[in-house]
Amino acid sequence: MITGSVTIRQGTITSIEETGHVPTGAIDFAGDFLIPGLVELHTDNLERHIESRPSVLWPHAPAILAHDRELASTGITTVFDAMRVGSIPSGKGRYLRYARELSHELLGLRAEGALKISHFLHLRAEVCSETLIDELAEFGPEDRVGIVSLMDHTPGQRQFRDIGTMKTHVATKKDMRDQEFDDHVARLRALQAKHGDKHEAMAIQDAWRLGAVLASHDDTTADQVAVSAEHGVRLAEFPTTIEAAEACRDAGIAIMMGGPNIICGESHYSNVSALDLAKRDLLDIVSSDYAPSALLLAAFRLAEMWQDLPRAIRCISQAPAHAAGLTDRGAISTGNRADLVRLRAIASIHAVISVWVNGQRVS
């Protein structure tokens, strides 16, 4: 941390000077913080805008714009919008394909200059599904796919190793009776047995085809992490145990946990606490998951615990940028994009006052 000035020209940081005075013509922050723009690798926030209530589907364009502006207001300047690929088109627990249509509209709005922040795609490849191969084939290198994550929500393992927790989450959301839930579990297990291996292999192949970073999701055991490493995984999303996180560290795989887990002090799926991982030096990246404001709140919670604010800010800026292969952002450094956030301490929080993307104020 320094007291100084940053000069921006044509969207790029051109100089950083440590100085105690305000240069002529500069914006005087009067003691406020300037931090790098936040980089979000995994957010369900767009899906929340698309379907804010069960079975209530919002028109895509206004949902995308609302999502974009909400992220900007929380200091996020680069986002990898998570979209599921791989569907189950029939039955009580069905879920339909949507990613290709939604991403087409998002990229169209981007091309028109309608979006305030930088958007990439994060395709969540659900191996326990019927249509994954066909849906992945709809995407090409021109679609800004930055991350492909291997998702396996087969009951009895990973995120849903506790069937009771899964029942609370899924049966309530889908309004399933006991027999309907049991049938749903049996169907998912049958789909995984039939398609799991070939779906996983195709998702790995398509990640390379699309030029995307490959991520794992909900690794639980060291053996699962070993398989992830063999596949070329560089990013572990939400490992569920200390064992898995330690194996990720040994394998050189970046560890990402959810901001809500940090703020609440526990996982709402009864998995490992992100704070426990942070205390063990097993946390590299924070994701807002489903609550965009969680990034800053979680970072300052970590800063208090670690007694190291720069380290905590790196978890929401430089570390996610580098994990996604982006070297032009995530730090206040000469030559980087001028993606910047002004923060002010108000009461017990640090509020976003201003946000710049490529040197242009967007919030």
Order of helices and strands: EEEEHHEHEHEHHEHEHEHHEHHHEEE
Beta-strand fraction estimate: 15-25%
Radius of gyration, CA atoms, in whole angstroms: 21 Å
Estimated structural class: alpha/beta
- Average residue-wise pLDDT: 91
Largest sheet: 8 strands, parallel
CATH top level class name:
Alpha Beta
**Spatial shape:** globular
Tell me the number of structural domains.
Answer: 1
CATH architecture: Alpha-Beta Barrel
> Count of helices?
13
As laid out across the biggest beta sheet, the strand order is: 4-5-6-7-8-9-10-11
Features:
single chain, 363 residues, alpha/beta, TIM Barrel, 13 helices, 14 strands, globular
Description:
The chain is α/β, with parallel strands linked by helices and 363 residues long. The chain contains 13 helices and 14 strands. 39% of the residues lie in helices and 23% in strands. α7 packs parallel to α8 (242-251). It is globular and about 70 Å long. The mean pLDDT is 91.
What's the short story on this structure?
The chain is an alpha/beta fold and 363 residues long.
List the SSEs and their pairings.
Blueprint: E1 4-9, E2 12-18, E3 33-36, E4 38-43, H1 45-50, H2 60-73, E5 76-85, H3 99-111, E6 118-126, H4 132-136, E7 145-151, H5 163-174, H6 178-210, E8 213-217, H7 222-231, E9 235-237, H8 242-251, E10 254-258, H9 259-264, H10 274-279, E11 285-287, H11 294-306, H12 309-314, H13 318-323, E12 340-346, E13 349-357, E14 360-361
Helix pairs in contact: 7-8
